[in-house]
Amino acid sequence: MRMLPGTDRLVRGESLTDQVQTQVDTQIQTGREQILNRGYAILENVIPPDAVGGVCEGVTEAAIGRDIANVPAGRGAVSGLINHTQVFAPYLAEPRLLGLTRAVLGEHVRVSFTSTIVALPGATQLKWHADWPFNQHNAGHIDPPYPDTVMHLTSIWMLTDFTPLNGATTIVPGSHREPNNPTGGYGIGEYDEHPEAVQVVGAAGTVMVMDSRMWHAAPANAADEPRIGLAIRWAPWWLNLDVLMPDSDERRRMVDEPGCTDNQVPAVTRRVFDGLDEAVKPLFRHWVR
Ligand SMILES: O=C(O)CCC(=O)C(=O)O
């Protein structure tokens, strides 16, 4: 989808002109249909070109030394990034992005994960999977066959250009309608090549929004620069996220007591929450402790 000059007004707390609002509404409707039909939509320039370098720098700085332990070689991931930097937070309210997530998951959509996805030069292939709560390796997962409805969205934010060489994310369009995914031993092997795979390349500032059931992976980073991105995930109000919360009873029962290790998403601190833009606060208030 093409760039919409003027949408940064909303990020700055101003209202949109009627003309821009109409364009935004059209892109939201198109994006919603794309997510329902093929599983994903692409929004360009969610972060404008003159701002994305600064966001990338802030995210990189916050990520250093905070990777969760169980990521594959050369890949970095920091969970609960919002507690460490808020440099990306205003763009969560970019009108097409927030409008699209609301159009798919409802008005009371919430952010479930804020994570970095870094692929350093030499990072090895990331295997096929679907995201929480569909990843069958997670203790907190929906058993297959899962219902054919959108229950969770994953947005991949490109903070550097995502290219074929640096390991841009690969997806299998249409796989979001399957009742299971390769983490459940379904379809293909987790490291197999898929004949219908598509690599989602894009310029820094682009955001790809997909149904979290989508089968996705990433090839090795064969470039000599890091590929830096974010995985921001979105949940409807009715999806129980408690297993992700450290020390919750659900987590103790499903993850800690059986001796599993699993995604966890630290609570948002009150101090961080109080500093967020008013348009962004509703996305996080469920996770403040
Ligand atoms: O790094 C990527 O391109 C994909 C990340 C991913 O699969 C995930 O965060 O679930």
Task: Explain what you see.
The structure is a single chain. This protein is an alpha+beta fold and 289 residues long. The protein has a single domain, classed as Sandwich (Jelly Rolls), CATH 2.60.120. The chain is 22% helix and 16% strand. The protein contains six helices and ten strands. The chain has helices spanning 8-11, 18-37, 49-63, 95-105, 249-256, 270-274, and strands spanning 40-43, 75-76, 110-119, 126-129, 153-158, 170-171, 198-199, 207-211, 216-218, 227-235. The longest helix has 20 residues, at 18-37. 2-oxoglutaric acid binds next to strand 3 and strand 9.
Taking the sheet with the most strands, its summary is: 6 strands, antiparallel
Determine the number of helices (DSSP H or I, runs of at least 4 residues).
6
Return the average pLDDT rounded to an integer.
Answer: 94
Q: What is the CATH domain class?
A: Mainly Beta
Note the quaternary state here: single chain
Radius of gyration: 18 Å
CATH topology heading = Jelly Rolls
Structural class: alpha+beta
The total number of structural domains is 1
Bound molecules: 2-oxoglutaric acid
Output the strand order for the largest sheet. Answer: 1-8-5-10-3-2
CATH architecture: Sandwich
The dominant shape is globular
Total count of strands: 10
- Beta-strand content estimate: 15-25%
Poorly predicted residue ranges = none
Order of helices and strands: HHEHEHEEEEEEEEHH
Q: How many angstroms does the end-to-end distance come to?
A: 37 Å
Roughly how much helix do the residues carry, as a percent range?
10-25%
CATH homologous superfamily caption: q2cbj1_9rhob like domain
